Model the fold of this input.
Amino acid sequence: MRAHGLPVGVFEEAQRKGLEIIDATCPMVTKIHVQAEKLKADGYKIIVIGDPAHPEVKGTLSHVPGAWCIQKVEDVEGLPRSSRVGVVVQSTWSGHQFTEIVKALAAKYYEVRAVNTICTDTHNRQKEASRLAHDVEVMVVVGGKTSANTKHLADLSESHGARSYHIEDASELRPEWFEGVHVAGLMSGASTPGWLVDQVESRMEELSRQPA
Done:
């Protein structure tokens, strides 16, 4: 089972077939499942904040059938009525977006119980990307192109003033990105291997020594 987890039905089918199951689900993802199930058992209508097409969210939704899934503040207005709602959030989601959505839910529903299930490492990386972007002219973010949290790091850096490039390896670096640049930053996604970041760093240093 991948780190993002799998829908309950896939896991049960593997069991029925007698397959050997190696569960590599991230503990933070398992925590989301547990919290969502507890909220549902306590009588709350479950709301999952996240991308419904993301494997992690698909898995979470399978643990609490009938849950609502939303991605932005504007989605709150279209939700059905309910007296009590319980909220969990995709582990790689933006902390700021989570806060704003919970505020909107609190304004709409009588009782809102929200559990912040954002991964601590993801939160710290987002915070650091925002801080570092103010101090650099260009930010290079290393990680999978399909990784939601890595893409968000690049978007955060861009929104805080740094021209940002999201790459998967050092071969994608281009000399023209750094022309006239005095300070460049380097960030990586939570699951990006350290050796890959080292390669990108080395290549950036090589480019910095090349004559303009």
User: Anything to note?
Assistant: The helical segments are 8-16, 27-41, 55-63, 95-108, 120-133, 148-159, 194-209. DSSP finds seven helices and seven strands in the chain. The CA atoms of residues 133 and 161 lie 6 Å apart. The mean pLDDT is 91.
